[in-house]
Amino acid sequence: MARKRHLEDLDDTIDLDGVLRKDEQEIRRDNVLKNRRKRKLRRKRLKRFSIVILIVVIIGYMVSDFSNIRVMKVNNNVIYTQQEILKKANLSYDSKMIMHPGMWIEHKLKEDEFIDDVSVSKNYLTGAIYIDVTEAKVIGHYEEDGKSYVLLANGKSVEMKDNQLALISSPYIKDLNKTQRADLANMLAQIDAENLALISEIRYYKTSYDDNMLELVMSDGHIVRSSYDGLALLKNYRKILEGLNDKLRCINIQESSNSVFTSNCD
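The structure assignment produced for this chain is given below.
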């Protein structure tokens, strides 16, 4: 009997310990959950505080002169002046840097027929905007129906405006029709700017064996006569001059034999 009571007391003791352990586990779990909620609440408060600080900083930056455009520089422009480029991009020194995304500036400028490509870079610390433009290659200019046009390397003709005086320095094209101008643009597009600048005038020319040739008046006094395909040899114009007779001013290009010879101009 005594042994039985002892076993019952032992069982009661074991059950009590289990209850205590269970209570301790629940307390620990509650503490863990409370700590998690506290950390989550702190993170939310910190996030809200950070957002408020960010908004304050942005507003402060926007209303300060520090956000203004303070430096603007355009590179590689010839057809347009820097002021004309900036006007096309709607940029001014009282504008805010953040209000003029680089991609939007590039898009605006590329809409112009004389601009092939644009690259914009910014420095927000100095308030600087740098614009690098790649202008369309100009082959020459001509007159038709009382208007002046510019012939581009892509074969397109664009009416010339009064303020585009820089284009007058390009070769003057005379007596060529639309198809001939397109062929001319296709060939001279391969010629570098240095050699292209040596051409003063391009005009129609014909011989007994070819009624669709060109005569180019060069700035050095020479006259070059060639078919359209022969114009490719102008890439080496200065080297061509080295082996020719200085007293004969006409340079004849024969693309069939890839040769050049001089003659009297008649």
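Interim note for the steering committee: The longest strand covers residues 115-123. The first helix runs from residue 2 to 63.
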